[in-house]
Description:
InterPro entries: P-loop_NTPase. This is Terminase. By secondary structure, the chain is an alpha/beta fold. The protein has three domains: about 15-255, P-loop containing nucleotide triphosphate hydrolases (Rossmann fold, 3-Layer(aba) Sandwich); about 265-305, no CATH class; about 320-505, Nucleotidyltransferase, domain 5, CATH 3.30.420. About 35% of the residues lie in helices and about 20% in strands. It contains 16 helices and 17 strands. It has helices at about 15-25, 45-55, 75-90, 125-140, 145-150, 200-210, 235-245, 265-275, 285-295, 300-305, 320-325, 385-395, 410-420, 435-450, 460-465, 490-505; strands at about 65-70, 95-100, 105-110, 120-125, 150-155, 160, 165-170, 185-190, 220-225, 250-255, 335-345, 350-355, 365-370, 400-405, 425, 470, 475-480. It has an eight-stranded mixed β-sheet, sandwiched between helices. A hairpin with a 4-residue loop joins β5 and β6 (about 160). Residues about 515-520 have low confidence and may be disordered.
Amino acid sequence: MPQTGNLPAHEPELTLGHHILAWAERYIVQPDGEHAGAPWRFTEEQRHFIKWLYALNPDGTWVYTEATLRRAKGFGKTPLLAAIAIIEFIGPCRWTGEIKVAKDGTRIAIGAPVRLPLVQLAATSLDQTAQTMDMIRAMLAESPAEREYDIDISKTRIQFKGNRPGKITPVTSSTRGNEGARPTMVVCDESHHWVDSVAGPTFYATLQRNTNKTLSQGSRCIQTTNAYDPNENSVAQTTHEKVLNGNPYILYDCREAPPNIDLKDPEAVRAGLVEAYGDSWWAPIDQLVNVIVYGDNAAHDYRFYLNNIAESADGWMSKVEWDECVSHEDPISPGDKIAIGFDGSLFNDATGVVGCRLRDGRLFTLGVWEKPDKAPPDWEVDVLAVEAVIQRAFETYQVEWMYADPPYWQEAIGRWSLAYGDDRVFEYWTSKANRMVNATERFRTAVTTRDLTHSGETKLTRHVLNAVRREIPQGILIRKDSPKSKRKIDLAVAAILAFEARADAIADGRLKTKKRRVMGFG
């Protein structure tokens, strides 16, 4: 399979790439291996990427204002990212306006170093930045660049000697003072790990705002990533979706194996690996064939070695399945007959309220309260706000049935039952395994058969895709990916309860006939 990103096959008409490549191979050294200390050499695919990364419009602006390098594990993304960081620190990475013409007619744009370079190595943890920093140190130690550019190389940052301003420094999502910095380049490593639970998307948005302030001076962000899990809503995923939606300003380099390879067929696996790794001659193809063919983690192998997007094996709902149920026709209207599901907490978990229209199973979010990233330790759900949403729902719609999980909210549920009718508001203990297994399975089946719809609301979708399978003797339940995970699933639980409430309301005859007073089902 050829390049599946948007990296053009031809060379750009005008680029700093030629000047940069010649400079880098003169001043940077090989960081490790048998050729450690020898002049650095790019592969042809890396050279092509560099040329397009530094491609110029006639007015001197970048053709691409953002870039992503999505390649298989072991392709050499970290060394390439380290080389780019060095280029942005001291290399000829900003156009002077001068053009030279080579003997073969190639137009070579001439660059100069950034006057006040601030290159940030961005990741969600310091451990993640350490690998790139170590690679940079090795590429500069005892190199011509170290001597000629008078560089001070330390474990935590690279800077000039003699208090001259400019540096390469790590930053993380927990670093104070990220907002307001003025980086000249941000290199973001392993953006498939930049998920909500580690504040990855918020962190990336901050970094982009910072580079946008000096975009006219050439500042931008570049990401490296493996193929992402489409259920995680990572920065890598949202960036790829922008490219798929036609954003022309993001350079996206990706080679991957043909999809759906039989992972037990050694020849098919070998061919897929050869395609995914391109000209990375150091890739241990034979060993990887054995790892994949005799392994038992298909999703991992597809993503990391074949560079195919694949979901985690324990995910409850696939994004493709959930998106197939999106509909923007016939939106919810006041007066519609609905059922409600309520899943509540008071402190660390979220509280969610989901509605489900009786006549067609259309889901919609009535309210959700999630603990903010920087909330104080004593943060609590706004109980009065929850009460107001419930009241407004009963005033706006014909609520025929409500199932509410009682823990922490039993007294409130009792009051709702008195206020709105004990033939409409019922407790539903999600801790009762048999009952919840059956409700979860009915919901899952309704998604696969498209017997329910939703409008693609961001928060409901996020909670549904955050849920992972939990197998118990009675069947399948859903849970968070870990007990302390920030990836909430409460709207998913509320949606299951709402869909179950709809089924029981219809069974009680409330879709077509006047409701009658009954006792709740269980």
